Amino acid sequence: MAFALRGVPGLRGLHDLRGPAAVALAYTLVQLVLVVPGTGLGWDETVYVSQVSPDVPAAFFSAPRARGITYLVAPAVLLSSDPAVLRSYLAVLSGAALFLSLAVWRPLLPARVLTVAGALFAGLWVTVLYGPQAMPNLWVAYGVLIAVGCFLRAAASTSAAGSRGALAGLAAAVCGVALMRPPDAVWLVFALGASALVVRRWRRPALLVVLAAGALLGAAEWLVEAELRYGGVVPRLRRASEIQGHLGWYPGALLDQLHALDGRTLCRPCGPEWRWPATGLWWFLVPLAVAAGLVVAVRRAAPAAREALLLAAVTGGVLAVPYLFLIGYAAPRFLLPAYVLLALPAAAGVSALAARGPVLLGAVACVALGHVAVQYSVLDAAVERSRATRAAFARVAEQLRAEGVRPPCVVSGHEAVRVAYRLGCSSRQVGGHDHSLTGGALRAAARERPVVVLVAEGHPVPAYAGDWRRLPLQPLPGLSAFRAHLAPMPSFSSTVRQHDIRKTTSNRPSSG
């Protein structure tokens, strides 16, 4: 198996991208068929989407978050409040982004390796599940794949025009990563910057300048917000660490990430139970495939292709470090940027193995089929949970709407963000990391608008809501017994106020 560094493909070279294009198209269609129909917004998604929704007050935006994904979803959210519109928009966009990020690597690696790499990445249940979701991690993955590819092309370019184009792509990609998740951009810049210093041929000041400039430009909004809302970058980082359970040395996070592969989208903590160990078998195959790909690259590949696979493996490993060892909980989406880079050397290894004869080709095909079957079993269960969650929140919203809870209104307590979004209300909390008002202020608000406090079974009623009417609610996922405490409804003597309420109610968003 031979690799060669080729020129940038023009129109004549587009046929080389048919494999990656087919993978990207299949990835989009799978999302549209299996994930988009009937799924609603998760808690994090609701926070991001509410920032630009014209029908719903913005939910509290905590210190660890960045607004990149909000900007990305804004066109669809402004067009419609229907989650299906947002899901379809992101499904198409994520498929296009997968193709673009693979195409950047075409001058560096053979089309068959890129096709296999795209299939390995797009075949993961977590990649398919988050393709149409308003979450930043998948877009960070595309950004880092483009960034590493453009870095290599800029370092290898012998023409001024080619160098300028690759540097512009590198700047844009790093900027996009920083806009989505500034901490990930720091690790990316560290990996690529250190590589530029270690490899003599890559010691170009322009690479370091572009890396720094792209990261600063992308993180500019986050940095300004840190100054305005938190009093500086350090206080915001400190607050972000508190919300995430105090970042530090957590070697057990690696095991949590392994356990989370059984379909749990968030483990905080995962606990010792591993419900379906078969879902994690592929994790043990990845290092073997990556090692095989690197061995093939060292022995047979052209120097440029060898460097490309080595840098992809190193950068992918660096991006995985914080989520495997430095955070005390797990979510499979955190590792998407590492997976997409490791897919390149893994694809080289799988391709080399499959080319060694029909027996090995058959073995690879059998393993691939088993892997896909497991991945889509996990995906199906995750999607069904999302659909059930959407239906449950819709029932709760209808219950509260029937009790007169309509905009302008305030919802507080357990799952306030998602319930408020479906009612068109504000979500405000008296405690926790999104503390934004006092109990007295909430009671004062109840004199002007409907106010609801949501309480899970086993939790005491807050003192400020102790005399409010109790309403048992339909169960929500994870909360078998759930109730609302409704403040006495304010009397609106003004016909203008009544008109405002009717007008706001008529514009409320669909339950999603």
What integer value in Å does the Rg equal?
25 Å
Are there runs of 5+ residues with pLDDT below 50, and where?
1-13, 492-512
The gross shape turns out to be: globular
What is the straight-line distance between the termini? 50 Å
The fraction of residues assigned to DSSP E strands is: under 5%
What is the count of DSSP helices, taking H or I runs of 4+ residues?
A: 19
- The biggest beta sheet, please? 5 strands, mixed
Count of extended strands: 5
Helix/strand order, N-terminal first: HHHHHHHHHHHHHHHHEHEHEEEH
Structural class: mainly alpha
**Helical residue percent?**
55-70%
Transmembrane segments: 21-43, 86-105, 112-131, 137-154, 185-202, 207-224, 281-298, 310-330, 359-379
Protein name: Integral membrane protein
Organism: Streptomyces venezuelae
Region (Disordered): 493-512
Task: Please describe what this structure looks like.
The chain contains 19 helices and 5 strands. 61% of the residues lie in helices and 4% in strands. Among the domains are: 245-355, no CATH class; 386-506, no CATH class. A 5-stranded mixed beta sheet has the order 2-1-3-5-4, sandwiched between helices. It comes from Streptomyces venezuelae. This is Integral membrane protein.
Secondary structure layout:
Layout lengths: L17 H18 L7 H8 L17 H12 L3 H21 L7 H12 L2 H6 L6 H20 L3 H21 L1 H17 L6 H26 L2 H11 L9 H8 L20 H20 L2 H23 L10 H19 L3 H45 L7 E4 L2 H8 L2 E2 L11 H7 L5 E6 L12 E4 L9 E5 L8 H12 L6
Helix pairs in contact: 1-4, 1-5, 3-4, 4-5, 4-7, 5-15, 7-8, 7-9, 7-14, 7-15, 8-9, 8-10, 9-10, 9-14, 10-11, 13-14, 13-15, 14-15, 16-17
